[in-house]
Amino acid sequence: MRDVQLARVAEQYGVATTYEDWRGRRVAVAPDTIRHVLGALGVDPDASGAVDRGPLPPAVVVREGKAPDPVLPGGARSVVETSDGSLLPFDPGLPLGVHTLRVTDNGTEHEAPLLVVPERVEPSALRRDRRLWGIMTQVYSVRSRASWGTGDLRDLAELADWSSRDLGADFALINPVHATEPSTPVEPSPYLPVSRRYASPLYVRIEDVPEYARLDPTEREGIQRLARPLRERGRTADLLDRDAVWEAKRAALEVLFAVPRTPAREASLRAYLEGEGRSLVDFATWSALAEEYGTDYRAWPERLRQVDSGAVRAEALRRWPRVEFHRWLQWILDEQLAQAQITARAGGMGIGIMHDLAIGVQAGGADAWMYGDALVSGLRVGAPPDEFNQQGQEWGQPPWHPRRLAGLGYEPFRQILAQSMRHAGGVRIDHVMGLFRLWCVPEGASPAEGTYVRFDHEGMVGALALAAHQTDSVVIGEDLGTVEPWVREHLAARGILGTSVLWFEQDANGEPRTPDQWRTDCLATVATHDLPPVASYLSAEHVELRDRLGLLNRPVEQERADAEDRVERWRELLVELGLLDEEVDPVADPGAVVAAMHAYLMSTPARMIGVALTDVVGDRRMQNQPGTSDEYPNWRIPLTNGEGEPVLVDELLADPRMVAHIRRTLGPVGGTGGSVL
How many helices (H) and strands (E) does the chain have? Predict the structure, then answer.
């Protein structure tokens, strides 16, 4: 009886008591897990009876032109206060945007945020009857002779300009550039930021800050002395050292911050700060406090743990110069992000830069502090065990609180989306299934001991569609892994493209799908940043690596045999389709296989094709090995060729042999595109 009651409460709050694993088996969730998750959501797991939700849900979401929902109690009176202050009836025809629904029922007034959202995302870039293709890369790994040891926004702009002008690329899909720690050590993973609302100054090109030109020769030489050792290291294949880069860049940026700005520059700064308002003050305050107390606000003095406390305001005033410095940094970043997109579009890209939105943030970071109860403490987002991560994953990030986020009109989520789309033509949503449900693991438990927590997908997807409509952005959802079939159908109906990866496109018997079996509304790629480059995959190096790291649940011989069988089946199909010579040895000539695979992608109906820069230059090392932290140098791998030699942006632009190699590798992809249909 007790388990029945627990299941009833769990159902009311969207907490799964069973789930289907990657093999299609039904798995029961342990009662202790369910209790912990409910408790973290602020729910008494032993509660009985129905939940009193009142006449309105936490938020009301209506698709444009559709009949409004929910059905109000008989006799209730309603009115909508729109975002511009107008009062309108609650009926079809409401303008797109975020409004307030006010309902009077039996003399009591209730209100809830009202989101009127587009039916579909229909960006202008996808209205053309042709396929779009682009480069996919990790910006930090793509360096030049001028960058300070890691790739920056100038390197990105030059890569985008070159790939569009010389190769005809329509977009450059990059890793998240979300905010990192204000002091060292800096977290290497771009998918574990302190904030998704703001960006990382690690990506600033120091010499492109206009105030650099106003320095006297002695001051400029001082800055260049900081840069030289980083540039020297940046011409090697050594692992990236973000800490050294940030220490040097921060010192240089503090010098530039002190340079008097022209009246026009000062006016531009003030306009930016006014537009960002309280949100940027809060982020900059967290950054200034973190410099003294550490980057986990939960370990700060008790009086500073609430963002809106009087003690926090007093501390912000006391260290206002540091707050101003961190606000200024975001302005500089905003300018350089904007310039990267301007350069990409000027070079002919139909979309330009496509940013990547990470699934979450650090549990003690700026967003967690700023957004408070909208995030759930005591739970961590992850993924259940699957074929490639057989022990499951736990990403160290707190999930949104479904009801509290909705009660805020999804404002924190909408702020983050606006930042990602601000200077871009599109956005990739990492783990897009998180708009529907998230695998939540009790803090301290193993990744396999979690369960799913469901969200109101109409609100989450609606907020995304509204942000994309307002910025004319292409939206790609990373929908790999365990996905309920109806989720992909819903996203496709809303104009959000999925992600189809060649290695995963196989039928129930493990046979590769023929090109005509692929879906149209997707970004088609050979692999992802969580998979090995093609050269490594073909030789099964990734199996040996996972075995050394203790990540396999099966004997290494069985894993290796399965990997080699998968490669052989793909080789046979590519040969059958006339895309690969039968005599080619995939291990000895990975470049020929890479070219054949991209020719294969071009023969699918996919609307977008993504080409990993690592595969183009023959890189063999993985950027990230899921399931590891310190065991493998995740996110610290610079771009190298098949011989392990560093590849710099300058070489891509200037070396005729490199350009010729890239053209051969891209084959038909780097040409005229072609009809979508």
Answer: 20, 21
What is the C-alpha separation between 232 and 648, in angstroms, rounded? 12
Structure-token match 């707050």, residue found? 323
What are the residue ranges spanned by the domains of the chain?
2-40, 60-117, 211-328
What is the phi/psi pair of residue 593, to 5°?
-70, -40
56-91 residue pLDDT tens: 899 999 999 987 766 677 778 899 999 999 999 998
Torsion of CA 253, 258, 262, 267, to 10 degrees: 80
Q: Which pTM was predicted? A: 0.94
Return d(Cα 442, Cα 45) in angstroms, integer: 15
- Residues 6+ away with beta carbon under 8 Å from 282: 307, 366, 369, 370
Q: 397-418 in b/e burial notation, b at 16+ Cβ within 10 A? A: bbbbbbbbbbbbbbbbbbbbbe
Q: What is the DSSP string of 319-373?
A: THHHHHHHHHHHHHHHHHHHHHHHHHHHTT-SSEEEEEE-S---TTSHHHHHHGG
Rounded distance between C-alpha atoms, residue 409 and residue 60, angstroms: 8
Q: Decide if 260 contacts 216 (C-beta within 8 A).
A: no
Query: Starting from the edge strand earliest in sequence, which strands make up the sheet with 437-442, in order?
Result: 393-397, 379-383, 437-442, 451-454
Q: Could you read off the pLDDT of 190-217 as tens digits, one per residue? A: 999 999 999 999 999 999 999 999 999 9
Peptide bond into 185 cis (omega under 30): yes
Q: In the prediction, which pLDDT does 2 show?
A: 64
CA-angle at 404, arms to 448 and 89, nearest 5°: 135
Instruction: Assess whether the previous peptide bond of 182 is cis (omega < 30° from 0).
Output: no
pLDDT at residue 661 is higher than 90: no
pLDDT digits (tens, 9 = 90+) for 310-326: 999 999 999 999 999 99
